Amino acid sequence: MLRVDLGRLERKERVRVVEALPADDLRWAEIGVRAGGPLEVDLDVTRVGRDVLVRGRLRGEAVSECRRCLREVRVAIDETETVLYRSGLTAVEAEAEEAYPLPEHEPELDLWPAVREHLLLAAPEYAVCTPDCRGLCPRCGTNLNEGACACGAPEPDERWAALRGLKLNRGGDGGGT
Ligand SMILES: [Zn+2]
Ligand SMILES: [Zn+2]
Fold this sequence. Notes:
Layout: E1 3-5, H1 6-12, E2 14-21, H2 26-30, E3 34-35, E4 39-48, E5 51-65, E6 72-86, H3 91-96, E7 100-101, E8 108-110, H4 112-122, H5 156-171
Parallel strand pairs: 6-7
Antiparallel strand pairs: 1-8, 2-4, 3-5, 4-5, 5-6
Bound molecules: zinc ion (2 copies).
């Protein structure tokens, strides 16, 4: 999976890698992303002198949680990927040049680390189900998108009242939350 036979690439100059990473593949867990379906990988691998250039597209879906109401949110992943594997570089040099070191004496090139890095950037750590999601009531946990709770919706003047309350408390013996 996601490996390029470097001998074959040498002969053909260009290899296309088309694969689907299943949603239950353990590599999703490795990057802490829950997949909503397979990741479609379509990469064009070309030899450029002694280096290897990988270009293509990653398409799939990540499942996240709305940070306000905790509802499941599906986020489309549609990324173009361009990665250069440079020959004769150490890992440190490669990092400085924003490239990957091309393995010198190995039969295969593993594309997963580069794909993984890209997915990590593409998959949102925090998501919001809709921009105007009202979230959960901090007191009783009611989903305020579905209606108000018994605690009462915080109207603007009630908020001011709450602020005044805070100021009064500050004069006392301090107070936690
Ligand atoms: Zn939400
Ligand atoms: Zn409430």
